[in-house]
């Protein structure tokens, strides 16, 4: 197997964002009460894309926030790693809102677990729904995504790289074997 | 870089610029946490921090305690006046006994310079110096630097003057070390009787005329005249001190450019600074207090979660 496989190109990526936006609107019967919160760093850009696409469809502007979950991570508390912390930015009240929590890749579920703890500290949302571009399996917690761009079965030694225009200059999803 | 190079914060002397930048950058995050409805994060859950205060302190101890609790650490407070220190126990015995109760971090204030360093080399916990004699008070200097950076946008090339009793001030010393490392231009100003000899060797310029100092700088850090330490020996009277070195409205009004006013507190109104200045638009004295909690959260986070 080659070390790098292109799973999705920029056109497929764009279609994926459109489909996720439509699914979110369908499930929530429109965009009323919706807010989009991305997990730093890549989830933030995906969240902005999704919000923009929903605006294109519905002609309404959704509040977009950014969440940094470093302070809530269990691996930080156990001295396993120490990433640099960045501020969260949720400049609106999330109480009684429907939150679309956005990340690029869903893996063990631990980041999402931290994010749920963090969000509850900001208020009491009506619902929290999880949207991810890629679900690569290997969950360690009972967490699943409500909206999934693509499910890609992986081994632990593989890596999913979501490329974004804002960071990498192009959109796409690659599967990388590091073994 | 996301880790400090050191396991303890004893002072700012010799602390590399990257470490100071990491602490100041992380402080932004914790300031944001303090704006939330729930001002608490679970980061130091299961860690125990002892506040070992051999010298009286209200604001520093409360600031540290709030920072510790907001990171979900378990907090134990120790003050010398109510402990077996008054029964004659040595510093080392006190520290070792507390450490035997399995604590992770020690925040310490002591009247003797070097007390924190002394215990650090003989104990296993991570130490944060909350003031040792006239030596250093690193978290105060970090919060002062953070406040200046937040107000003026940078520390690089900023002219900062520390005014008052330089000789007895751990705040002054830590500020000089930190500011010089961060590329600021530092000056000190005060009565010659309260000016340590050779202070310029630390990279600080010396002013004896406060109006000249004010004309030079972008920010002033006004130190408290420690009435309990003076007993009238270093200058003739408080009124004369105010007339010669006090930061008054008239002095600030005569300046060509505005000056940011800091004060580590507690304030002697009408001595080193006038009420109109302390409560005025140029003062960032209360933001300093808020930033102090965030800076201490950043230091506790970076030391408390640091991998070996």
Write up what this structure looks like.
The complex is a heterodimer of chains A (179) and B (308). Chain A is an alpha/beta fold and 179 residues long. Chain A has helices spanning 10-27, 42-58, 74-77, 110-122, 165-168, and strands at 4-8, 34-39, 64-67, 98-106, 127-135, 147-151, 158-163, 172-177. Chain A has a single domain, classed as Rossmann fold. Chain A is globular, with a radius of gyration of 16 Å. Chain A starts with a strand and ends with a strand. Chain B folds into 2 domains: 17-137 and 292-304, Rossmann fold; 138-288, Aspartate/ornithine carbamoyltransferase (Rossmann fold), CATH 3.40.50. Helices cover 39% and strands 15% of the residues of chain B. In chain B, strand 5, helix 6 and strand 6 form a beta-alpha-beta unit. In chain B, helix 5 packs across helix 6 (170-181) and helix 5 (138-152) crosses helix 12 (285-304). Chain B is globular, with a radius of gyration of 19 Å. At the A-B interface, helix 4 of A face helix 1 of B.
Quote the beta fraction of chain B.
Answer: 5-15%
- How many domains of chain B? 2
Helical segment count of chain B? 12
Q: Helical percent range of chain A?
A: 25-40%
Q: What percent of the residues of chain B sit in helical stretches (DSSP H or I)?
A: 25-40%
Q: Give me the secondary-structure category of chain B.
A: alpha/beta
Q: CATH homologous superfamily of the largest domain in chain B - what is it?
A: Aspartate/ornithine carbamoyltransferase
Major sheet size, sense and barrel closure of chain B: 5 strands, parallel
Broad structural category of chain A: alpha/beta
Biggest beta sheet attributes of chain A: 5 strands, parallel
What is the fold-level CATH name, i.e. the topology of chain A?
A: Rossmann fold
- Order of helical and strand elements of chain B: HEHEHEHEHEHEEHEHHHEHH
Widest sheet of chain A: strand order?
3-2-4-5-6
- Name of the CATH first level of chain A: Alpha Beta
* CATH class designation of the largest domain in chain B: Alpha Beta
**β-strand number of chain A:** 8
């Amino acid at each position: 197997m080659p070390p790098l496989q292109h799973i999705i190109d920029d056109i497929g990526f764009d279609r994926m964002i459109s489909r996720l936006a439509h699914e979110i609107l369908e499930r929530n019967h429109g965009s009323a009460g919706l807010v989009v919160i991305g997990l730093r760093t890549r989830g933030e850009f995906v969240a902005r894309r999704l919000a923009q696409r929903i605006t294109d469809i519905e002609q309404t502007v959704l509040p977009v926030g950014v969440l940094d979950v470093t302070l809530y991570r269990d691996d930080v508390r156990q001295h396993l790693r120490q990433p640099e912390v960045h501020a969260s930015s949720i400049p609106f009240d999330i109480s009684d809102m429907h939150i679309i929590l956005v990340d690029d890749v869903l893996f063990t579920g631990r980041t999402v677990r931290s994010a749920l703890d963090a969000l509850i500290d900001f208020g009491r949302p009506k619902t929290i729904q999880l949207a991810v571009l890629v679900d690569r399996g290997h969950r360690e917690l009972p967490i699943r995504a409500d909206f999934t761009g693509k499910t890609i079965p992986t081994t632990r030694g593989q890596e999913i790289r979501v490329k974004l225009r804002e960071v990498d200059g192009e959109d796409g999803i690659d599967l990388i074997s590091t073994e | 870089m996301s880790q400090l190079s050191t396991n303890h914060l004893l002072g700012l002397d010799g602390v590399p610029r990257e470490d100071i930048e990491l602490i100041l950058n992380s402080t932004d995050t914790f300031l944001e946490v303090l704006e939330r409805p729930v001002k608490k994060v679970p980061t130091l859950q299961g860690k125990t921090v002892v506040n070992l205060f051999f010298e009286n302190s209200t604001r520093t101890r409360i600031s540290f305690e709030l920072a510790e609790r907001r990171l979900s650490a378990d907090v134990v407070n120790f003050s010398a006046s109510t402990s077996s220190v008054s029964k004659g126990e040595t510093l080392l015995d006190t520290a070792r006994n507390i450490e035997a109760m399995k604590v992770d971090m020690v925040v310490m204030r002591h009247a003797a310079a070097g007390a924190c360093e002394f215990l650090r080399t003989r104990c296993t916990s991570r130490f944060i110096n909350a003031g040792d004699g006239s030596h250093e008070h690193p978290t105060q200097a970090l919060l002062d630097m953070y406040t200046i950076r937040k107000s003026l946008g940078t520390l690089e090339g900023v002219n900062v003057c520390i005014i008052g009793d330089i000789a007895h001030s751990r705040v002054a010393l830590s500020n000089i070390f930190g500011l010089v490392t961060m590329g600021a231009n530092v000056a000190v100003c005060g009565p010659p009787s309260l000016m340590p000899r050779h202070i310029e060797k630390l990279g600080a310029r010396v002013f004896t005329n406060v109006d000249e100092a004010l004309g030079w700088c972008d920010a002033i850090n006004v130190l408290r005249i420690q009435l309990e330490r003076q007993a009238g020996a270093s200058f003739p009277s408080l009124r004369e001190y105010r007339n010669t070195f006090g930061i008054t409205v008239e002095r600030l009004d005569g300046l060509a450019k505005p000056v940011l006013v800091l004060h580590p507190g507690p304030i002697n109104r009408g001595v080193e600074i006038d009420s109109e200045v302390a409560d005025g638009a140029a003062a960032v004295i209360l933001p300093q207090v808020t930033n102090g909690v965030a800076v201490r959260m950043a230091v506790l986070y970076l030391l408390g979660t640091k991998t070996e």
